[in-house]
């Protein structure tokens, strides 16, 4: 299950929306709606490694071990959930060396320890919320503190329903979910309307949805209210380690400029895809 991020920044500035006519026509054909209009955000195909070294595991300050998540604050400081090192690493802009801000590198249950963390969120005050798979808890680390308090939360959920191959919304006090993307019956696929083991989802300020389509080796963009996706990072069904490919990626995040950060887990790196 993915914690839903709501990326809204006072620094948000307008971006150019480019229209790809050929892709739009293809999507019209797929959707069966000739009156539909798809305006596509364009991403640079090749990713930039901003944390970790491709294919190398480790616990030094410039290495990662199975990173599961990446999030960015309003100063474009990067926070990486370094799962198998049981820590959260903080990277200042343009630095390839991280500082441990949560956890001490040991697998444990104490308030200053983490056990297989899977996701982290940073708020405008620099406080970090960390989801721990191993301890089945969410830990709140106040800005500057190395010890956490265990917290809980309620609200509507956006769920990356991995084994059902879809993204759903489940409101509190409602007995069923609403399909947002993927197949309603849980069938996997690799076309524009299907997913294969999605693991994370995030939204931009316009309500457009970005989905980690793990086993299809791609990031899919679903425009607000649409169920036809467009691949904006990775290449469908092609895992790899060069700058245009992904391998068992887990999570996705947008910064205040709507550049895309992907936790490229099996490559032990964080990839940044620039918007243009």
TrEMBL record:
Record-given protein name: NHL repeat-containing protein
Extent of the signal sequence: none
CDD domains in the record: NHL (cd05819)
InterPro entries (alphabetical): 6-blade_b-propeller_TolB-like (IPR011042), NHL_repeat (IPR001258), TRIM-NHL_E3_ligases (IPR050952)
Pfam families named among the record's database cross-references: NHL
Repeat positions for NHL: 64-94, 186-225
Protein source organism: Rotaria magnacalcarata
Keyword terms, alphabetized: Repeat
Lineage: Eukaryota, Metazoa, Spiralia, Gnathifera, Rotifera
GO molecular function, one term: zinc ion binding
């Amino acid at each position: 299950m993915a914690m839903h991020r709501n990326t809204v920044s006072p620094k948000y500035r307008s971006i150019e929306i480019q229209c790809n006519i050929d892709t739009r026509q293809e999507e019209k054909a797929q959707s069966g709606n000739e009156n539909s209009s798809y305006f596509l955000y364009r991403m640079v195909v090749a990713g930039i490694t901003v944390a970790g070294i491709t294919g190398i595991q480790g616990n030094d300050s410039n290495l990662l071990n199975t990173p599961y998540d990446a999030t960015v604050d309003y100063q474009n400081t990067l926070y990486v959930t370094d799962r198998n090192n049981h820590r959260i690493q903080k990277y200042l802009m343009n630095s390839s060396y991280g500082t441990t801000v949560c956890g001490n590198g040991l697998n444990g249950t104490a308030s200053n320890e983490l056990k297989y963390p899977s996701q982290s969120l940073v708020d405008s005050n620099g406080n970090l919320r960390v989801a721990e798979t191993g301890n089945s808890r969410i830990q709140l680390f106040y800005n500057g503190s190395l010890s956490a308090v265990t917290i809980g939360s309620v609200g509507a959920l956006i769920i990356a329903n991995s084994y059902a191959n879809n993204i759903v919304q489940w409101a509190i006090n409602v007995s069923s979910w609403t399909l947002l993307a993927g197949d309603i019956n849980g069938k996997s696929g690799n076309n524009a309307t299907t997913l294969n083991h999605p693991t994370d989802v995030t939204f931009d300020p316009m309500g457009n949805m970005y989905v980690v389509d793990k086993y299809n080796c791609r990031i899919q963009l679903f425009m607000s209210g649409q169920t036809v996706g467009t691949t904006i990072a990775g290449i469908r069904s092609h895992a790899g380690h060069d700058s245009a490919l992904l391998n068992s990626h887990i999570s996705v995040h947008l910064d205040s400029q709507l550049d895309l950060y992907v936790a490229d887990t099996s490559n032990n790196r964080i990839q940044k895809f620039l918007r243009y």
